[in-house]
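Whiteboard transcription, Tuesday session. T.W. wrote the C-alpha cells on the left side:
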C-alpha cells in the first residue's frame, strides 16, 4: 500500500512539476517570440516612417519645382508681352513732325548700321565686334524686322 501511495503521489507530483516546468518553458518561448515580433514591428515601422518622410520630402521638392516653373513661365510671358508692346509703340506717330520723321529714320538707319557692322565682321573680318556691340546690332535688326512684320499684319 505504501508503494501504491508513493506511486500515486510520485505520479501526481511528477505531473504537477512537469506541468509547471512545461508551462514556464512555453511562456518563456511565447515571451521571446512576442519580443522578437515587437522588434520586427518596430523595424518595419521605422522603415515605413523613413519611406513616408522621403515621399513627403520628394513631394515638397516637386511642389517647389512646379512653383518655380510657373514663376519662370509668368516672367517669360510678361517679358514677351512687354517686348511686343515696345515694338508696337515704336511705330506709333506722336504728332510732332520732326519727332515722327526722326522715329521713321532712326530704325532703318540703325538697322543699316547693324547690317554694315555685322557684314564687315563676318565677311571681311575688318572690324572686331564685342559681344555687347553684337547684341546691340541684333536688337536693332530685331526691332526693325519686327516693326516691319507687325506693320504688314496691321498690328
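and on the right, the sequence the group agreed on:
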Amino acid at each position: 500500500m505504501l508503494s501504491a501511495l508513493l506511486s500515486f503521489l510520485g505520479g501526481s507530483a511528477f505531473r504537477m512539476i512537469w506541468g509547471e516546468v512545461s508551462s514556464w518553458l512555453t511562456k518563456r518561448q511565447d515571451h521571446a517570440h512576442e519580443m522578437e515580433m515587437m522588434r520586427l514591428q518596430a523595424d518595419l515601422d521605422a522603415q515605413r516612417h523613413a519611406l513616408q518622410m522621403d515621399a513627403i520630402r520628394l513631394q515638397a521638392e516637386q511642389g517647389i519645382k512646379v512653383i518655380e516653373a510657373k514663376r519662370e513661365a509668368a516672367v517669360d510671358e510678361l517679358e514677351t508681352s512687354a517686348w511686343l508692346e515696345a515694338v508696337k509703340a515704336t511705330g506709333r506717330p506722336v504728332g510732332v513732325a520732326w519727332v515722327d520723321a526722326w522715329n521713321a529714320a532712326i530704325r532703318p538707319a540703325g538697322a543699316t548700321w547693324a547690317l554694315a557692322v555685322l557684314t564687315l565682321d563676318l565677311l571681311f573680318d575688318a572690324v572686331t565686334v564685342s559681344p555687347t556691340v553684337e547684341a546691340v546690332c541684333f536688337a536693332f535688326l530685331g526691332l526693325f524686322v519686327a516693326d516691319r512684320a507687325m506693320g504688314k499684319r496691321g498690328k
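Someone added at the bottom: The chain has two domains: 1-90, 95-155.
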